[in-house]
Amino acid sequence: MTVYVAVVDPAPVFRHGVVAALSSMGYLVEEPADAVTWLDERPGAMILLTLGSAEDLDQVVALCRVRPRPLIVALPSGEVSALGVQAVRAGARSVVARTATVSALQRAVAATLEGEAVMPADVADLLVAGRGGRPPHRSIPSREQIAWLRRLSDGWTVARLAAEAGYSERAMYRLLKTLYQDIGANSRFQAILLAHEEGWFQT
Predict the structure, then answer these.
(1) Helix (H, G, I), strand (E, B) or coil at 31
(2) In this model, does residue 43 exceed pLDDT 80?
(3) Which domains are delineated in the chain?
(4) CA angle, corner 57, sides to 13 and 179, nearest 5?
(5) Which pTM value belongs to this model?
(6) Kind of pairing, strands 46-51 and 28-30?
(7) In DSSP terms, which residues pair with 75 in a beta bridge?
(8) Cys-Cys link to 151, which of 119, 156, 163, 165 (CB 3.0-4.6 A)?
């Protein structure tokens, strides 16, 4: 059975290195420009996705919407613990630091394909403790702001949200940025995740 693996990373040298390391294990490894489109032709494949910032987590969410759901191995390049926790909460199966050794990456990929979840111990500790991945929120949003977050969670664009709310797109971006800061989120993804965790969408 052919195992397809995609490597999504901004650095060609890194991608080529991962392709070589995993191809030597018999996997068919590719470097798609659009991972979602690539998955349409390879259902159930694995994606190795580098996370350089919280904003990159939006791609994890998008990939997890594909059916059948792909196996995602998140490769945090920044603060591994926080990004790792967020990646797992967003749907990643495993977390391996982007700076991990070739053998560690190979072991993680093999284990993930066998149905295991691999991650650094500090990521697991934070998940078990229910912490990590975001700062504590400072305020509860208004009903209108919760409605904005709900629509963003449903896949609305900021342009569509602005048109419905009666704001310009630029003003909507500013309002959302302020909202994220007020609730202690660093990105749209964190704000939506926080809304789910706090049960704001259920009110």
Answers:
(1) coil
(2) yes
(3) 4-129 (3.40.50.2300), 143-202 (1.10.10)
(4) 135
(5) 0.67
(6) unpaired
(7) 50
(8) 156
